[in-house]
Amino acid sequence: MTNWPLEGGTTGIVSVDRNLRGILKRGGELAASALTKAEAKELFPQLPAKANRRLIAGQVSAAGAKVLGEGFSSEKTGTGKYTIKISPELASTAVCTANYAGAGAAFGLDIVSSSKTEVKIEIFNSASANADLAFNFIILG
Q1: Which of 65, 77, 81, 131 lies closest to 104 in space, CA to CA?
Q2: Domain region containing 17
Q3: Which of the 8 DSSP states describes residue 89?
């Protein structure tokens, strides 16, 4: 884990680990400009130049159908197992975050794998059994 002071003061820190999981905080607000270009390049060297990056956001139903979004198709490959297919392919391996939508019970979600052309997601219930559930996602690559 690497920590940097935020621009404009010392009221918060930027914490990002090598798995690209992190929180950028400044007084409870996201601080998108908290990293310098050199720090961002060190943390995210696999991402292409800004002009070549694509951001894809969407929602997939429990049945695996695309509900919202463009630039992808989706399919359910088994109970609680989904594949998001990206077209055209990304310039780099997908960095993805996802969360389940509309759950009334305790569920978990794993991003199983990602590439330039697809992301695989599995959703499971509190008993660790795969379960069908709608989810939202954001992909950068």
Answers
A1: 131
A2: 2-45
A3: P
Structural domain count, the chain: 2
**Residue 82: C-alpha distances to residues 59, 75, 111 (Å):** 12, 6, 10
Nearest one of 135, 127, 128 to 82, comparing CA atoms: 135
How does DSSP classify residue 54? -
Residues 75 and 101 in one domain: yes
Q: Are residues 27 and 6 in the same domain?
A: yes
Overall pTM > 0.85? no
The amino acid sitting at 125 is N
In this structure, are 106 and 70 located in the same domain?
Answer: yes
Choice among 80-84, 99-103, 111-115 with the minimum mean pLDDT:
99-103
Radius of gyration from C-alpha coordinates of the chain: 17
The Cα 8–Cα 27 span in angstroms is 12
Residue 82 one-letter amino acid? Y
d(CA 29, CA 33) in angstroms, rounded, equals 12
